[in-house]
Write a structure and sequence with these properties.
mainly beta; ten-stranded antiparallel sheet; disordered N terminus
Length: 218
Amino acid sequence: MEPRLIWAFLLACTTACDKGDDSASSDGDADTDTDSDTDTDTDTDTDTDTDTDCTGKVAGEADVVGSGTATIVPYKSYTGTESLQYTGADGPRKGELFCQINYTLTSTAVRTDCLDDKKTKYFFDCNKDYEGWGFDLVVSDAAIDAAHPDCEAILCDKDVSSLNGTAVTYGWGLFELHILGMVHYVDPSWDALGASKWDPETGALSYQYGADDVEYYK
């Protein structure tokens, strides 16, 4: 699963909810106190809960920025951490970094389809001439950052731990025959991924990328 799918996963919210009947009772008894009290209490409680549970009431859009660091042994292992930050682009949270989700990325498999593969080498080549690499990675230890904890507007009824077990594929090498840098796999091909720095001497990688804006809720 590529980063765009991770973001979509985080945005999965309930979009429909059973609501109380707003219509007034019309049993012909104008002075029935029970009908009036029941309607008022039910309408108020249901509407308030629905608004805060992300049932389709969009408040605005948020900019999404991903960043991470990792230690890599080419063709052997990738161990790192990544964060997703959500900043209001408009609406009541405009300009506010209100949610950050952190998680660990660990390699599960080495990608060999970027090693001099005739089908992909003109798009992405991760061979040793470019000190390249490619890995399938899995997410674990997903948690909300205490400094920017208001992630209910993004997660809605999903727990952040539901992100664990999702997958992404990253690589480093020569992209489109002239760009040396980091990529991610978007089936059925590789695509460039933001700005990155890779030190083959130490195995240290750092990177940052931007994503499409996403909706956030009240």
